[in-house]
Specification:
Blueprint lengths: L1 E6 L5 H13 L4 E6 L5 H4 L4 E7 L7 H7 L8 E8 L8 H10 L5 H11 L3 E2 L4 E4 L11 H15 L1
Helix pairs in contact: 1-6
Length: about 160
């Protein structure tokens, strides 16, 4: 199986998650990690599995990830999506917690990425997943790297 993991990372947390997922996916075959800024529709072609990740910013994936996903053709490609996000139970802002509650899953990048992947013709092999960062610049919550590797194992088991 040839897998491509495309990610964007602002402070290194999403990259750490991407690397943990990539390392675990390597067990099932060849996995290439590619920063979204270096990716293009041509670079994405020819893979059996596409995993896309982004930090959640203002309820969306980063602009570079969002732009990359528009106009892709992913027929017969299996896909999965992840993001990094805050634990809303630990956010002090009542207003932000309320906005997230109203938005539901659309408050995070991964479900939006997953929707774009499906719109492009990909088949999701796992529900979108979020990994927790403690603060804007990190660190990741303890155990998130292990959880990311386990999620990748579930991806392998599903294909």
């Amino acid at each position: 199986m040839k897998a491509l993991l495309v990610y964007d990372s602002q402070f290194g947390n999403t990259e750490k998650i991407a690397r943990a997922i990539g390392d675990a996916l390597n067990i099932g075959g060849e996995t290439i990690l590619l920063r979204a800024a270096e990716a293009s529709p041509a670079a994405i072609a020819g893979y059996d599995l596409l995993v896309v990740g982004s930090p959640t910013q203002r309820f969306h994936a980063t602009e570079i990830v969002t732009g990359l996903l528009k106009g892709l053709s992913l027929k017969d490609v299996k896909a999965a999506a992840f993001d990094t996000r805050f634990d809303m139970d630990e956010v002090d802002s009542r207003m932000l917690r309320m906005a997230v509650k109203v938005a539901g899953e659309n408050a995070y990048a991964a479900p939006r990425i997953a929707a774009e992947l499906e719109k492009a013709g990909a088949t999701l092999v796992m529900p979108p997943e979020g990994f927790i960062v403690e603060e804007t610049e990190g660190p990741l919550r303890a155990g998130e790297l292990e959880r990311a590797a386990a999620w990748a194992g579930q991806i392998l088991a599903s294909i």
